[in-house]
Amino acid sequence: MEIIFEPMKKSVSIQSVKTILDLAREAGIALRADCGGIGICGKCLVKILRVGGKLTPPTNNEVTALGMQRLNEGYRLSCQTKLLEGNVEVFIPPESLIQRYRSADVGLEKLVPLNPAVTFHRVLPKKPNLVDPQPDVSRILVELYEQGIDVDASPIPLELLRDIPEIVRKAEWDLNLILWNSRLIDVKPYDNSFKPIGVAVDIGTSKIVVHLIDLASGETLAVESTPNPQASYGADIISRLTYAIQSNENLAKLQRAVINAINILIKKASERTSIPLDWIYEVVVVGNTVMHHLFLGIKPKHLGFSPYTPATRGPHYFNAKELDIDINSKGVIYLPPVVAGFVGSDAIADAVAIGVDECEEPCALIDIGTNTEIIINTGKKIIAGSTPAGPAFEGATMSFGMRAIEGAIDQVFVYFDKSLSDYAVRYNVVGGKKPSGICGSGYIDLLANLYRLRLLNRRGKFAREIKSSRLIVENDLLRFVVAKAEETSIGRNIVVDEKDIDSLLLAKAAVASGFKMLLRYAGLESNDLSRVFVAGSFGSYINMENALTIGLLPNIPISRFIFVGNAAIVGAKAMLKSKEFREKASKIARAIEYVELAAQQEFSRIFMESLYLP
């Protein structure tokens, strides 16, 4: 049996019955599977071009998601369809692929005095002779002591110990010594062009960002990013957690996916700057707690069940070879501490980047994503919580939802056109082409506009008494047409229906109630907040006025909101460049009081209230 994927022209020989989704993964094709492959999101769509055998019949989930007309046209959900015998050729539409999307790869840079863990020193020890036959290592260390350099005398790694005799003689005793936290980790022949390089990595649920840093100057040399390939196993962390705990094989797949992606990004950055991989001696990795565990290959089983306990807090450091990270084999991978099951080292990096511990008046930090993290400095203590907003704001679970890739409607303005005596829509499309769907910022605009115009009531239901050519009934659902079929690249109306709005309101309620609950726990009112730092890609692109209209964020003056972009990568870079900032991160992590929001007495009531538009 064989399957051929078009237009990639990739094929896979089939040894056992598997879903088309699994076969696509084997072919290295990153198909969307926002629901984790359980057949409810409808995003892993493929079209059967030719069947020389037998496929499984459409499942109930496929009938619900696609309808009989599309099934008859040859469309199937790849997660539900299996080839039982023979061969098949399938076409993968562009919208079914995980693609690069617009996001914040950088943030507001922080001035960091250089004091990296990785340092290098030139030494010229004297050659041994019969009068002075000191061991090679002793000669090297004495040179460092004489330069006033503090050296940790702990055992030198065996791999390095084996190499030293040949290296020092080949270099004729003119050497570069590489230290990590005052420990000798490498010895190299002196090279005037050499400079130690570090890498900062932010493993987001949706995207991985890598910055290449010159540790001698602090300069950012290159920035690379890619969609997180784990998204093929589920758009949100709960889907991936569920997949990972099913078997050790699944856990290994998720770990390998993220490590391969990081290695590819590091290699791209290296090639772009002509920096040898061998010069990279440290990588600082931040991410939420599930991403942290999956990166380390720790089964995240107990993160999925109350009391949501991490296997470890950290900080941790490992040899690069232990994790198969393609840098110098003697390099170090450093992971800052996590706080709790769903407040990870990315939140700590955010806090470091904005100096949340330095606020003299109450301030807050929010990173909106599939798992939204909130930190509040009350002026007396720092508290943190998380809330599962889910992937609705990233397009998953929505009829025409997509990430902010080319073809996504990212801004929407709905108005009543008197010349037409009807409602009209203006929108912006990422890339300037015909639209194929709507991304999160577009959905927030749409929800706010429809509510302002009273096309929606507080419960998110359409006003059925209003007559408009844009309010149509399809499959027994009332829908609002955002872009008409002739305007789109997919030849169909792009619409929003009440199911979509319900998903948006659930995500909105999760964020809003989490913020309200944490403020209540702190004994604060929203107006007590002097500043609210909004971090992350999603927060960088939303229209704040519209976000306040739907009640997503606290109703305070817009001037108090500060957009900081990808603060996690900024914090990771600060820790890469400064040992003091590492200690600062650990201090913040120890100081934070974690609040399990869902366990609070009033949470259910506040969540239900937040389901309404204000």
From TrEMBL:
Pfam families: Fer2 (PF00111), RACo_C_ter (PF14574), RACo_linker (PF17650), Raco_middle (PF17651). InterPro entries: 2Fe-2S_ferredoxin-like_sf, 2Fe-2S_ferredoxin-type, ATPase_NBD, Beta-grasp_dom_sf, Corrinoid_activation_enz, Raco-like_middle, Raco-like_middle_sf, RACo_C. CDD domains: fer2. GO terms for molecular function: iron-sulfur cluster binding. Signal peptide: none annotated. Residues 1-96 form the 2Fe-2S ferredoxin-type domain. SUPFAM superfamilies: 2Fe-2S ferredoxin-like, Actin-like ATPase domain. This is DUF4445 domain-containing protein. It comes from Ignisphaera aggregans.
